[in-house]
Amino acid sequence: MSALTFQSPCMSNDNTMPEMLFVVGAPRSGSSVLLDFLTVPKTVAWIPQRLGEHPEKLSLARRANKLNWPLLGEFYLERRSVWKSVPEPANGESFWSHYMHGFTPHDAEPYIPGPEQVSSEDMEKMREIIREICYMQRRQRFVAEYNGFPRIRILKSVFPKAKFIQVLRDPRSVAYQMVKRAEGANLPLWKEREKWAALMPEVLQARLKNLPDTPLNFCGVLVRWYHELYKIEMDELHEMDKMEVAYSDLLSRPDKILGKVMKFADLPQNKRFKYYVKFHDIQQSNQRTNRNLNSTEAEQLAQAVEKV
């Protein structure tokens, strides 16, 4: 791997781009759990939560440097999920949308995100921003997360050499968690469900009509749609540029799965990383679904998420 040149963060030559890695998946699939581990190595740049909330303030990228301080950096790393003052990696949705108009569809005007929605000027600006973040964090690679509709084609257009890791979780659990977090009818997509349903394949539109009109059933069909769209865009990638990780495997065999992930990303499993894996109880992230549903709800949800 060639070292990144830090002399000028806004150079237009693509050879200066850091190595890009994206963790993707449907909402509530566990991509944030995996991102947490991928941001442990000191050579990786990432978007701190405060920068994700205020993407226009690029200087907030320097907050990530706190975890690389001598001695105290390890201390802060252990506590970043507990102490609000310690930077955590952000979900990149607001960040990407701020610099690439069209990256995220609005509920009032739904569409499936693609390269045609993002201008070439925004794409070049995005490259410059990533170079600048890596410059401020003095790191050679960049890792980020996004979830929801796949934007693999968009990001491949911006970063042709990028790699992608998709986290796959039982679609029933994903749908249940989407509804639970949004407290049912407060789910934004549910409020505009007729517009979104009109964009779905006919087989999924028919499935929605045959099921009771509930947030859970809608989310079940929506998650199946996400998975079908991801399959299309992931299949377009070269085998060397993609990896799939089952959330259940990540919980049950974290050492083995994280080992494969780090090898794919060409990141070190050094003492710092191994200690963090041991310190972080990943199984606490697991939440069961069926115990919270009655038999009718569970049966309907199974129909909603059935493969096409």
Question: What distinguishing features does this structure have?
Answer:
disordered N terminus, 5-stranded parallel beta sheet, 9% strand, 308 residues, Rossmann fold, alpha/beta, 5 strands, globular, 15 helices
What does this molecule look like?
- By secondary structure, the protein is α/β, with parallel strands linked by helices.
- It has a domain of 208 residues: P-loop containing nucleotide triphosphate hydrolases (Rossmann fold), CATH 3.40.50.300.
- A 5-stranded parallel β-sheet has the order 2-3-1-4-5, sandwiched between helices.
- Helix 7 packs across helix 11 and helix 11 runs parallel beside helix 15.
- The longest helix has 21 residues.
- 37% of the residues are buried.
- The N terminus is likely disordered.
Termini, distance in Å? 41 Å
Give the H and E element order.
EHEHHHHEHEHHHHHEHHHH
> What percentage of amino acids are in beta strands?
5-15%
- Report the major sheet: 5 strands, parallel
The CATH homologous superfamily of one domain corresponds to P-loop containing nucleotide triphosphate hydrolases
Number of helices: 15
Cα-atom radius of gyration: 20 Å
Q: Assign the CATH architecture of one domain.
A: 3-Layer(aba) Sandwich
Helix/strand structural class: alpha/beta
CATH class of one domain: Alpha Beta
Q: Averaged pLDDT, please?
A: 86
Q: How do the strands of the widest beta sheet line up side by side?
A: 2-3-1-4-5
Helix percent band: 40-55%
Approximate shape: globular
Low-confidence stretches: 1-14
What's the CATH topology label of one domain? Answer: Rossmann fold
